[in-house]
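Can't attach files on this board, so I'm pasting raw text. These are the components:
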Amino acid sequence: MQENNKKYDAIVIGSGISGGWAAKELCEKGLKVLVLERGRDIQHGVDYLGEHAPPWKIPFANKADRKRNVDDYPIQSQCYAFDAATKAFFTKDSEAPYQQDENKPYHWIRANGVGGRSLIWGRQTYRWSEFDFKANVEDGHGCEWPIGYDDLKDWYSYVEKFVGISGAKEGLPELPDSEFLPAMDMYTLEKTIKGRLDKYMPEVTMTMGRTAILTENLNGRAACHYCGPCPRGCSTGSYFSSQSSTLPAARATGNLELRSNSVVEKLIYDSNSNRVTAVQIIDANSKERLSFSADLIFLCASTLASTQILLNSKSQQFPNGLANSSGTLGRYLMDHFKMQHVAVFADNLDHYYKGFRPTGTYIPRFKNLPGKEQTDYLRGFGLQADPVRPDWRFHFNQKGFGKSLKDNLRKPAPYWVWVLGAFGECLPNANNRVELDESKHDEFGIPQIKVSMSFGANEHRMSKDIIKSSEKIFKAAGAVYIETTDTLSVPGSAIHEMGTARMGKDPKTSVLNAWNQSHDVPNLFVTDGACMASSSCVNPSLTYMAFTARACDYAVSQWQQGKI
Amino acid sequence: MDRRFFLQALTMLGGSYATAAIAGLAGSSQAAAKPLAIGPSIDELPSDLFSEQERKDLSAMAEVIIPRTESPGAIDAGVPKFIEYMVQNWLSEAEQQIFLEGFRAIQKYCLADFSKSFSALHPNQQLDILEDLEDKASDSPWYDFANVQRQYIEDAPFICQLKELTIFGFYSSEVGAKQVLRHDPMPMQFDGEYALGEEDSSWSMIRTM
Ligand SMILES: Cc1cc2nc3c(=O)[nH]c(=O)nc-3n(C[C@H](O)[C@H](O)[C@H](O)COP(=O)(O)OP(=O)(O)OC[C@H]3O[C@@H](n4cnc5c(N)ncnc54)[C@H](O)[C@@H]3O)c2cc1C
Ligand code: SF4
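---
Top answer:
Structure tokens for the assembled complex are below.
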């Protein structure tokens, strides 16, 4: 193996949402930083190959490329954001295999390239609340969080001012307000619905989706131009991605080195110094093994990938994976469960819209909170809602020919559909876990992970209430036809995978301390979703950002004081 | 197939995050990849499945489905080329066979009964032939409320395949998007109260994600 003599102050593994933040913070504090990213380089703008492609330029008129999807993207192609114009960002399942428990399918949705999933994410950004951080200790599921909302509050503000989040203040303790740019407008239908909910279901708040999209110019990034399909990339930087935001800030310091096509295989641990002394990679092109060293190691490869690296970093001291003296590494995997319900509305048919608003509205959790309805399950759910005015793609299969067919297809349907997408909190459970499957390797010879996860009784009880509550909301909102489903999403497919290297107070039952620092190995930090000790019901990435910025601040001060 | 499926499928096509193919854009070969926006249009991709006569007949059929009226029709929009490309490159072998058999059966029938090719028949005769096919196909699940392209109906009869490809080709084409639908690629604003007049078309591209 080739050793690289250049020594860095810090190595960041992964360049997605968490890694981008770590790179920015560490570089801005003056550290020499190496970012190791397994995927290809993706240049801002230049490599957004699907951006602004008009419908007539999209292969097969954007009908799914069934053959290739089955061969190369059997799992990724099930993601809503996957299509002909976005698929170049997604990881080919055929090239990055993992194992699933036979009876428990798990969808691992990935975008292994510079920027990670920040290029294709849904940009929904919500703070966690004090209730979220207290949930474990109150109901006894999972371990106690070592921090509370107050510890993170200022860090939320700090990252939000840089990210740029459009949204509306509501003053709800269960969904604390962020630092907001102006909220986007609601559709007339949404205003109608909101008016009815205010009247008939006052316990429910309907607010504009809080979204990492600029409604005003910010730091050289332009306000959104409402073109619509964000996951194709956004060369104006109007939504937050590593490319548009954190990596340029890191680069501007002159302290950043980013090495793409660098698959981290393992971390090398030295028991004498009790430190990670090197990061071993395989160059994806040359297949050559190389190692790099630094004082601080930030593991930000995303929940499952970070834990894979730790599990694969075995030593005499840590035979079951690095930083795993507790034996909890790999356990307590969580993902929100998703359910979708739809209803038809006959209101505001003479209203349409101009511009493609790249977000929806949000109905925050309104159960099992002080002063709200208490139920037969623990914790709660939030609802993301979208209006759709169906077009020709929903009616192309009507009978008839000629002028009347052409004219029918040309016009919007004479109804609206309003979709409620529920995200339910998932309890931490030791049996939901990821392990290494030593009998199966990827093309680099790295053992694959095996994921085993299913939703439990609490999630299923909650799902019944989600159906009931959605029906109630639809009725109050004035729906003329309602369709609910009782299926819970396949674990993983909410793409909010969390846990497996959880934070906690007790080194015997957790992997990381209150600063995202390994209890066992002080120069090792994990700041992506792996650190989460519970899952809340809101989208998690904003919280990873706040954790990352906070951990960087702590690590650098410790490092400067010679304590790490 | 049920209506639930239809409504669920809306979530794939419509809203943003909560709800919810590449000939030129091969993910792996980065060097060769070009932005889709400067690539070929869907009616410019080459195919060599049909003879000149077959192309004439296919064009006539597409034009019966979406004719030129006060606005352009299927032929103006390049739909026949799109159909040929899709039949050759997108349909599975079994689907392609259904298409070709159905297509050739009409051609044979026209020659036998009228001693003319389909394209040489009077528009009313052409319409009768296609309507007759639709009558015979009308119990196909292709006509179900639930069929919204999420799943291609693999055993759909020829007439259904023909209509689906014609309609997708037409409303996705530049001509269809700009002259029949409304195309607004750079709206610069979002107005949620924008009025819809009785004669107004849909936007050409309703896909936020
Ligand atoms: C379609 C979609 C919609 C989403 N919507 C939302 C939303 O609305 N709100 C929200 O909060 N979250 C959303 N998410 C989730 C969000 O994208 C993730 O939570 C977030 O990207 C996680 O950040 P991360 O840095 O931990 O991981 P990623 O962004 O996935 O980045 C990890 C990086 O590490 C690299 N890496 C992995 N393994 C290795 C290795 N061995 N060596 C070197 N590098 C490695 C990867 O290539 C990748 O670049 C969505 C995700 C998707 C896919
Ligand atoms: S809708 Fe806005 S944020 Fe999304 S890609 Fe277009 S300009 Fe960028």
